[in-house]
Amino acid sequence: MEGVDHLADERNKAQFDVSDMKIVWAGSRHAYELSDRISRLVASDPVFKKDNVSTLGRKELFKNTLKKAAHAWKRINELGLNEEEALKLRTFMDQPSFTDLHWGMFVPAIKGQGTDEQQQQWLPLANKMQIIGCYAQTELGHGSNVQGLETTATFDHKTDEFVLNSPTLTSSKWWPGGLGKISTHAVVYARLIIDDKDYGVHGFIAQLRSLNDHLPLPGITIGDIGMKFGSAAYNSMDNGVLRFDHVRIPRNQMLMRVSQVTREGKYVHSSVPRQLVYGTMVYVRQIIVFDASVALSRAVCIATRYSAVRRQFGSQNGSHETQVIDYKTQQARLFPLLASAYAFRFAGEWLKWLYTDVTERLQAKDFSTLPEAHACTAGLKSLTTSVAADGIEECRKLCGGHGYLSSSGLPELFAVYIPACTYEGDNVVLLLQVARYLMKAISQLNSGNKPVGTTAYLGRKEQLMQYRSDVVRAEDWLKPSVVVEAFEARAARMSLACAQNLSKFSNPEDGFQELAADLIEAATAHCQLIVVSKFIEKLQQDIPGNGVKQQLQVLCSIYALFLLHKHIGDFLTTGCITPKQGSLANEQLRSLYSQVRPNAIALVDAFNHTDHYLGSILGRYDGNVYPKLYEEAWKDPLNDTVIPDGFHEYVEPLLKQQLRNARL
Ligand SMILES: CCCCCCCCCC/C=C\CCC/C=C/C(=O)SCCNC(=O)CCNC(=O)[C@H](O)C(C)(C)COP(=O)(O)OP(=O)(O)OC[C@H]1O[C@@H](n2cnc3c(N)ncnc32)[C@H](O)[C@@H]1OP(=O)(O)O
Ligand SMILES: Cc1cc2nc3c(=O)[nH]c(=O)nc-3n(C[C@H](O)[C@H](O)[C@H](O)COP(=O)(O)OP(=O)(O)OC[C@H]3O[C@@H](n4cnc5c(N)ncnc54)[C@H](O)[C@@H]3O)c2cc1C
Prior knowledge:
With 664 residues, the chain is of the alpha+beta class. It folds into 2 domains: 1-49 and 277-658, Butyryl-CoA Dehydrogenase, subunit A, domain 3; 131-276, Butyryl-CoA Dehydrogenase, subunit A, domain 2. It is 53% helix and 9% strand. It is built from 23 helices and 11 strands. It has helices at 8-12, 18-26, 29-43, 58-78, 83-93, 98-113, 116-127, 279-309, 328-363, 370-398, 410-417, 427-443, 461-466, 480-502, 508-514, 516-539, 548-566, 568-573, 579-596, 600-605, 611-614, 625-633, 647-663; strands at residues 133-136, 152-156, 161-165, 173-174, 185-194, 197-207, 220-224, 240-244, 247-250, 259-261, 267-269. The strands form 3 sheets. Strands 1, 2, 3, 5, 6 and 9 form a 6-stranded mixed β-sheet that branches. A 3-stranded antiparallel β-sheet has the order 4-8-7, with no helix packed on it. Strand 5 and strand 6 (197-207) form a beta hairpin. Bound molecules: ligand LSEC2LVB and flavin-adenine dinucleotide (FAD). Flavin-adenine dinucleotide is lined by residues 101, 135-138, 143-144, 175-177, 234, 239, 419, 422-423, 425-426, 428-429, 432, 516. FAD binds at residues 138, 177. One of its GO terms (cellular component) is peroxisome. One of its GO terms (molecular function) is FAD binding. Its cofactor is FAD.
């Protein structure tokens, strides 16, 4: 029934004020109002309609994306939107496009690695979109191993230029988004060669296409790398291939904040750490953590609303069947994901703070927190994207058969989201970076170097090795200090065990390779500890709103105890808890699920997703699922005609043949 709220009863059950929770989720009243206003603006604009994208062919899809990107830019200018509002508008457009890389990586790379002069030269052009840029780092042969890149930038003393070259097939740039068809410029990562000496990988600004006719400049071979996973998904993006055949660029197009090449061809390294060449990745990884909470929240919102609408079994004397959300198995699969979406939101908020702090310190030439920022962004990017990707697929299964329909929104969300586990650093490779950071922190304990930041707990090594949980009742697991101590002890013991095993190898690198699987488990335990701790810290703040804090406390406990239950092997084998304490945690978890149940719909309403952004019939705000599913089926192009194309050509002759055979 149109106009009826089928989920009204569910909404009435809520024990907290959903409008206050919306503000907590958004981060502030300002962020909520901005997000609410821009999401509605996009939803009401017919150009941003997206319900047909999954039936478009690649070329049509790409053209449709260009149209939307251009329209977004037009609206941003017409409405005079600021940077924050413009970013939201592009987010709610919800179709990956070249502009993501232009604003998300090209511009930040120039800001982070360019000198003041270079910023003055390039940023005004980029900010007005008079040039469009991408981030060309990965090659056909190397992605994770950045030091292994093969593209060269050789200094020519005579002409004061660099010569960009792709010496091998494997040195072809491969993957950069926006590169394939649209970018006019790129930040290209290449090995700097001066007088036959290799100075390693540096960033260079290169023009790729003419600003007059958009054709590739001489010496440049460029194109799209082809279809990717899914139908629409990331195929709206022109991930590209690029080869240079001795292409010349002026010397001042090397990004020179970290190191410089003088007119005389002298290489000068400034006081800035060389790792700042990787700074754009740190910036984007931090955004990706926040984005993981959004992606997961969309899937959870769809699965939760649909689970309240869907009924199976349990009818007695003609009464309603049971809502599937009331099945304990459904709750045990769904509610930890709901809790994770909130947990990642707060971890993302904290990471944004950490990133801002490290950026301010860098300006003041304090580089001390850079390793911590790298380890935290790498680790949390890995943890949150893996959980979000698996979580979206779990939400599809939670919606049964209808979850597999394109109109559920879940297949598209999954297909577009899963590369997050790979781009900006493969998740395993990034966890190994965290493990290196942890092993380094442990190796420095004996030299009196007190670990700080997220590794501070390792400084209490002796105490954590003695730790035994004192939980005696299920409710004890609700105490934040009890949870944090157990997670700290587990993480510390796993890391210390790795460090001890590493010390048995004469060559530490051999040991690191051999123990890599254990090391990533230790790194995961460390990252989970960070997320749990940041959730608990959030709850120590003043959180206004009727019942809001109580709901968040329940979600925080679910997040922590679900992890404890899932990784019970770690907690038991490290001797942090006993089997009895493990089963008490599980008992508490069951009780927490029952507490979430009446609030579940309101907790997903608090994400404030519009129906346009969700793009899901199963997740509609009004819960009017069946009539809309039925209506949508008839819109499929196959239903344009009663008899499909090809029937007369291929199937009818078969049927006729059978008929003839039968008559004979
Ligand atoms: C305002 C607008 C915003 C718009 C929104 C934007 C959209 C955002 C959403 C994104 C959505 C879609 C975008 C998708 C686009 C995808 C883009 C890409 O994928 S770009 C390519 C990304 N590539 C990678 O991530 C490669 C992964 N590999 C690496 O990062 C490294 O090479 C590494 C770390 C694996 C290798 O390290 P290794 O140890 O072998 O090498 P080094 O010798 O280089 O390092 C030694 C030393 O340095 C430390 N280190 C490493 N990395 C960093 C870093 N980034 N920062 C600081 N320090 C770093 C390392 O720990 C070692 O330290 P040490 O103390 O010596 O042990
Ligand atoms: C959709 C998408 C968009 C992208 N956009 C861009 C872009 O705009 N610009 C850009 O420059 N790049 C981009 N990339 C490339 C991306 O950054 C790389 O694919 C990513 O960094 C992973 O590197 P790889 O492909 O070399 O994987 P590989 O390193 O080859 O990984 C293959 C396997 O090997 C494992 N492995 C690798 N090294 C180790 C190790 N040391 N120890 C243990 N296991 C290891 C990995 O875990 C993985 O299982 C994009 C990629 C995708 C999918």
